[in-house]
Amino acid sequence: xxxxxxxxxxxxxxxxxxxxxxxxxxxxxxxxxxxxxxxxxxxxxxxxxxxxxxxxxxxxxxxxxxxxxxxxxxxxxxxxxxxxxxxxxxxxxxxxxxxxxxxxxxxxxxxxxxxxxxxxxxxxxxxxxxxxxxxxxxxxxxxxxxxxxxxxxxxxxxxxxxxxxxxxxxxxxxxxxxxxxxxxxxxxxxxxxxxxxxxxxxxxxxxxxxxxxxxxxxxxxxxxxxxxxxxxxxxx
Length: 236
Known about the structure:
The protein is mainly alpha-helical.
């Protein structure tokens, strides 16, 4: 008897679960801040009656939402495998890695939006999305700045590389060499040193010089052929 095959699990399922837990924890922390805010208003004897009443109502909603969210986080965390739990703890205890993960997620969102530019029929749609894309780019640059500050304070893992901020001026030009397409500094764990052709300015200059040399050699052959043709024509 042939049994039904088990559904294939995504290779990124664990990674996605860890990312979701990080976001849920952030939402929970935000709810806790709101809870403290409403608690302070209720306990303050100088709070006006209307604000007191509103704070009591909102506090009940926040507490209910916080209770549900806490249970959801507990259940999802219990469902993680050993490796994913270790990765979660690593991210929670290292602000550089947590910021790196958020920056990568934003970069992927930017890629998804900008890929629409490839299709000419989507031009109007992309035009309407430009404010959202610009906002994502500014948020990404803010995360890059945070990573640089953590790096300068020695809070980054050994061998970590800070990603470059995006040049906002030409972000819609879709230049193949633009930093929007690079993921250097966004790798998980301890990234290896970037390849020279990506990060070394001298190698960049050398590659450009090689292209120019090849172009000159091709042009020389072309000119020699023209010169030979002219000589043949004049000799007739």
